[in-house]
Design goal:
CATH superfamily: Alpha-ketoglutarate-dependent dioxygenase AlkB-like
Strand order of the largest sheet: 1-2-13-10-15-8-5
Structural class: alpha+beta
Distance between the termini: 61 Å
Shape: globular
Number of helices: 4
Largest sheet: 7 strands, antiparallel
Helix content: 10-25%
Bound molecules: 2-oxoglutaric acid
Strand content: 25-35%
Number of strands: 15
Order of helices and strands: HEEHEEEEEHHEEEEEEEE
CATH class: Mainly Beta
């Protein structure tokens, strides 16, 4: 008799339902269907052949282990830019309308009071009305090799405090939900699997967060990602282009 692989039957894996991790952070497992994941991966690959090819941004002169492309705005470690200096001043492709609508749907699905009692606490009708104003104008798409990771950081290059919507496809990642004050404890670790949605806003909009680990070979059978993981975050910059 052998023991199951580490984590296969851990509590967080067995009880995968929508949940508020801390006020302002909501995780909805398997929000995307297999077909939607396949479509997204095709789009991500296509966008990567556009003006901003997948690249490893430098942080303090060192390349990140993820490969990033973006829509709407280009990111470097000094902030969000309309033109990418590294790519001859190219402008990113715009965020398509269907991505905006997906971001709105994510908020209205995820932030219902029944799932997220802590924040924003709207009645469902008010929530839908508010979600309709969410107009993400930047999407960062990161590809993680099985060995890649992302250190604890805050998403604070945007002028708007509207929530971040994050989608994952491919191998499962360990996502560290920190706190807004420090990059250290307290934090909660959440496994983000293929198709999962996580939203962070309100009291957790500026939380430190990171991806310490990818679990290689954990993508579902027939995954559109043969190896590693894609993540797309949607944000509102609150700036005019
Ligand atoms: O890959 C993830 O789940 C997180 C990505 C992230 O933290 C970021 O793009 O700022």
């Amino acid at each position: 008799m052998s023991d199951p692989p580490a984590g296969l039957f851990s509590d967080d894996v067995l009880s995968r339902g929508p949940q508020e991790i801390v006020p302002g952070v909501v995780h909805i497992p398997a929000w995307l269907s297999g077909e939607q994941q396949r479509w997204l991966v095709k789009q991500w690959s296509q966008w990567g052949r556009g003006p901003i090819p997948p690249h490893s941004p430098l942080i303090h002169g060192h390349p990140m282990s993820v490969r990033m492309t973006s829509l709407g705005w280009h990111w470097d470690d000094t902030g969000l830019k309309k033109q990418a200096r590294e790519f001859g001043g190219a402008s990113p492709l715009p965020v398509p309308e269907w991505v905006v609508r997906m971001g709105r749907r994510a908020l209205s699905d995820g932030l219902r009071r029944s799932i997220a009692p802590g924040w924003p606490g709207f009645e469902d009708r008010e929530l839908f009305r508010w979600a309709e104003t969410y107009t993400p104008d930047v999407a960062l798409i990161n590809y993680y090799d099985p060995d890649a990771s992302m250190g604890m950081h805050q998403d604070k290059d945007e002028d708007s405090a509207e929530p971040v919507v994050s989608l994952s496809v491919g191998d499962t990642a360990l996502f560290r939900v920190g706190n807004p004050q420090t990059r250290n404890k307290p934090y909660r670790d959440v496994r983000l699997a293929s198709g999962d949605l996580i939203i962070f806003g309100g009291p957790s909009r500026y939380m430190f967060h990171g991806v310490p680990k990818i679990f290689p070979g954990t993508a579902p059978e027939h995954s559109p990602v043969a190896r590693g993981r894609f993540n797309m975050t949607l944000r509102m910059t609150g700036r005019h282009s």
